Amino acid sequence: MGTGSPPSPWAALMAEMMVEDYPRSLAFWTGPLGFAVAFTRPTQKLACLVHPDGAQVMIYQRDGDWETGPMQPPFGRGMVVQVYVSDATAMAARMTAAGVPFYVALREKWRDWGDRLGGQREFLVQDPDGYLVMVAQRIGERPLP
């Protein structure tokens, strides 16, 4: 039997990430990343996590189901999970305080959005299984050069 209740509303896209060590991953996502547990399925070792700024993700202990190929660390190769927050600088400080190494240190980045540039303050870290997580704060838009 599960505990808690689903987020309201559910995200339109929810990443479900297989993990090797559920307690370790849960501690990372609910610790320095600041997510809270919406609900769990203890027998499956699954947690639906929500961030105060709105992001949602699920983590669960690998059980052999839905594995489309060999699982070798780092997991999630070719995928970046983006978490948008209201203050990326404060989140980066939390990572530093927790001893989490940066894959890419805090930076300001402007990208082509087609008809304009979109800016964000961002950094990247890897979770305990190697999933690449970009924590970003939107900082504005500007005209194309």
Features:
about 40% strand; 9 strands; 2,3-Dihydroxybiphenyl 1,2-Dioxygenase, domain 1; five-stranded mixed β-sheet; 2 helices; mainly beta; about 140 residues; about 15% helix
Describe the structure.
- The chain is mainly beta.
- It has a single domain (3-65, 72-142), classed as 2,3-Dihydroxybiphenyl 1,2-Dioxygenase, domain 1.
- It is built from 2 helices and 9 strands, in the order E-E-H-E-E-E-E-H-E-E-E.
- The protein has helices spanning 22-30, 88-97; strands at 3-4, 15-19, 36-41, 46-50, 56-61, 80-84, 102-112, 117-126, 132-142.
- Strands 1-3-4-5-2 form a 5-stranded mixed β-sheet, with helices on one face.
- The chain is globular and about 55 Å long.
- The model has no long low-confidence stretch (mean pLDDT 93).
Brief rundown of the structure:
By secondary structure, this protein is mostly beta strands.
**Could you list the spans in which at least 5 consecutive residues all have pLDDT below 50?**
none
Structural class per helix/strand content? mainly beta
- Major β-sheet strand ordering: 1-3-4-5-2
Helix content class: 10-25%
CATH class: Alpha Beta
Order of helices and strands: EEHEEEEHEEE
User: What is the residue-averaged pLDDT?
Assistant: 93
The count of DSSP E runs of length 2 or more, i.e. the number of strands, is: 9
Strand count, sense and barrel status of the largest sheet are: 5 strands, mixed
Q: What is the CATH architecture assignment?
A: Roll
CATH topology tier name: 2,3-Dihydroxybiphenyl 1,2-Dioxygenase, domain 1
How many distinct folded domains? 1
Through-space gap between termini: 56 Å
Indicate the proportion of strand residues.
35-45%
**What's the CATH H-level homologous superfamily?**
2,3-Dihydroxybiphenyl 1,2-Dioxygenase, domain 1
Principal-axis shape: globular
In angstroms, what is the radius of gyration? 16 Å
> What is the overall number of helices?
2
